[in-house]
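Contributing new records

If you add data, match the layout below exactly. Sequence lines come first and carry their own label; structure lines follow with theirs. Keep one chain per record. Anything else will be rejected by the validation script.
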Amino acid sequence: MPDGSAKDPQPLPNVPLIHRPGSSAASQSLTRAPIVERKRLLVVDDEAPVLKLVSRILATENYDVASADSGEAAAQLVQDPWFGSLDLLVTDLMMPGMNGRQLAALVRQRNPNLRVLYVTGFADTLFKGLQELGPGESFIEKPFGAEGLLEATRLLMFGHISQSDAPPDKRDDGDRQWQDDRLRAKVVRLLRKLKMA
């Protein structure tokens, strides 16, 4: 019986929203810089343990997290004038009564720039009657890990997971980046010519 002193095999990593094949650090989460700009989130799920877990995970970031145990309760919450604006709705897709998609449509009437992360165990029903998700929408399939949830919310809110993932702006590096791109293109063209000769 192992006593913990022997090398135990590494636990399976959480599967994030984005799969990064070939990465030697695939089992490690990305280093995420703290979120400077505080965002307001609403978590909605009719299963109390899931609601508490998702709310607790998201509260570890610099998010102002509110929660509701049904679509109807969430609708009442966001319609109160004191509730204010909302940046992200994290909602279970399949709930009795008002489902996640109906809730998102209702909340967007008051928050048109709202981003929505659907949490679902039934990803195949997500696209029923739809070609694709709308702008500012994404989904994460159950079961998911804490890292996957945090990465998914960051990606949806900011377009990247960590500061190092932010796409570089070529204007920041002056002409050097443009010259590097042109040189790379010339090398590729030269290699193609040599291959054909």
